[in-house]
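This section describes the prediction task in plain terms. A model, or a person checking by hand, is given the sequence of a single protein chain and must write out its three-dimensional structure as a string of tokens. No templates, partner chains or ligands are provided. The sample shown here is typical of the held-out split.
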Amino acid sequence: MRGRFLILLIGLLTSIPSYSQNVEYDSVDELISDIKRRNFEKPISYMRHYLTIVENGTEVFQDSIYIGMATLLATTYTQNDQIHKADSLLFHSINFLLNSGKKSLLAYSLYVAYGGILCQLQNYVKASYYIEPALKFVEEQEGKEETYSVILSMLAVCHMNMDDLEKAQREIEESVAIIEQSTSKFSESNKIAIYQKAGAIYNELGTFDKAEYFTKKAYDLSLENDLYVSEFINAANNLAVIYTDAGRYSDALAVLHQMEKKPLSEIERSGVYNSIFLANYFLDNEEETVKYANLCSNSLKNISSELNASFPGMTTENIWDKNAMQLKVNMGILDKYHHNAKAVEMCYDNSLFIKNLAYDGMARLRQISQTDSTINNLFSEIRLLKSERFAGGHNVYKSLEEKEKLLKEALLVKRNIISTVPTWRDIKRSLKHNECAIEFVTYSGFARTNSETKELKYAALILTSESDYPQFVEVCTYNQLHEVILDALKEQEIGINDLYVLGQKHILYKLIWEKIDNYVKESKTIYITPILDIKNTNIGYIPCPDGCYLNDKYDIRIVTSTAKICNQERIQFSDAYVYGGIEYTKGKHNSNQISYRSIVINELCDSTRNGFGFLRASGYEADQIADALQANGVETNLIKGRNANEGTFREMDGHSPSIIHLSTHGFYLVGFDKYTEYFNKLIPYSSNNNWMLLSGLLLADANSALKDSNEQTPLNDGVITAEEISMLDLENTKLVVLSACETAIGENLQEGFGGLVRAFKNAGVKSVMASLWKVPDDATAKLMISFYKLFLSGTKMHLALKMAQKEVSKLYPDPYYWAGFILLD
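The expected answer:
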């Protein structure tokens, strides 16, 4: 149990200033009373105004009041779910004291408060860096008295989370012994805080009787006192966790329903709803489980929609990711209650919401930045810093973290940041007769104990225009499909043909489609949103037992979310950029290398080549496509050789063409063992788990930069990552064709496609064509030329791809050569 512990060090304030403004307080007690009763608006306004005029030099600096106000304002921000504002405020206040030369013995309280914020952000090492000197100072000035015990308990929590449980136990025992002898006016509040920490530490130690004892003491002390609402919420939440872990679900519910009556923030409310629904789940109370699962999901969506303070890929704490993960976890309700219509509806809508934020959030951020100069400037600075990752080292990461923190703060004042997300009912209304939507989701049941494991499973949630609610269909387990896909990609041509050649084993049909087939037989067009390893298959070319492909039976359309059905529009093309025949090495190109369009360095494929060879068919492909586009009135910019560099690619930012065609090498890096000198320029590469750095494209001179890191110029080194692409503005682009290897491959994300597909969608591109495996050069060139000729003659894009694949299959019968490309949205 690692609950949130709020720090309230208000003893510094013995008086408060009075000055001309609309918000006034007569006493410290009045100010603090508002905060404790969770009436935040007035005290936040008052304290922010006071700190501003002090720092501007228009108010006499009084260290006790300034430091007390900063500490109290940070506490108020935290209780009001604005932890990043608290983080920024305390960091700023500490620097104000240091830089202005206003030294104060009371500065230790800012260090303590900042340490508390860092604990809540789970940065315990950095938190202890601030807490330890404050503890030493207080001991020297006051001895081991009440303030010392409060700070010591905070340090104990740090050590608990740093896995030094022996030290944490010693510290919390000393802290409890001191506070229980105290009789000051603040002792009751401090006892509540220390008892909660003691409960957390003993729970971590496995001493559950002591964990319950101390947490119950904190709960009882705060239960009936309206001045301890925040303390009660923390204690009740921690006690409910202890009861739930012990299987005492009825006891947990009694505590949680007491919490439910309190004035909770949205984040606190979502946590309470989540705990109530889990307790009911284990008690097998179906109606209450489904009710509170829905309440929890709706609360999480409200938080994400209003804050949207984190977009996937940001360096600082990712609020979006935490909420999205909880929404995914809530889908575990399907394991027991997939017969319940409300449960299935909730899971369908949760999936739509997650994918909407994942794919469209960055585009929405760009829209906001166009009307807000502060956000626009920060966003521009962040984009530049992310492009300089490979050369800037730690300083770039530090600057990036600071800018993202400021961007989060700027976004927090925005409301209704995310546009309305369609629901399953909207999709149903958008479906025509004989059309069907399939939203793939994953779920696993909830475990009663940490030692119990539940298998991750796939399900298809199926909708038609006649559906009363989405139909649940269990598909297969994650492990079953993962092993099949992994083996096929390891073997490449042999393994892929084994999955897709007609008349073979029908492995994919049995795993993915067999149970679905009975529910979609009346449909002609099927919209499908794949996830995890399902997205690594070409569903349209799954062989059926009756000797045909799914594409022969249905009009299969792959979408990043079935919500896309609600926003179909007619696409017109006016201009294009076509890249091909790229020279990756300065000087003469090596045309004798194997002609595959990739460098994939992972456990799935070979990692033996030392360079990226010139693609012989790529130049011809680019010429033919450019001619076809121009012949159909599309203004075309053909970019080849060394002109096909990162600089020309970046020139599209903000005024991109209708079509971008990229005939080049792609990469997907997992556990890279080559070019480490280049990629190790990403200092926290292996630790920050940023999947947007794993995928990318190679442009002119990339080979030279990779072999010699001194050749690097970050904005034009020929290596452009998915993260760099995602930060561009390509909203004018209707179609991106990634005529390269494994461009649809990325991290296995439950919200769908990662890697380059996600990058171009984040950049605002409508449709993306990408590849699922290592595609051969010659066959790919023929496929692309055929595709453009067909769709430029009036054939719908998705049908043009299928027709081109059928045409190329006459020259290359094996599916390995032509079935690797999919078209999204």
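For orientation: The chain is about 50% helix and 10% strand.
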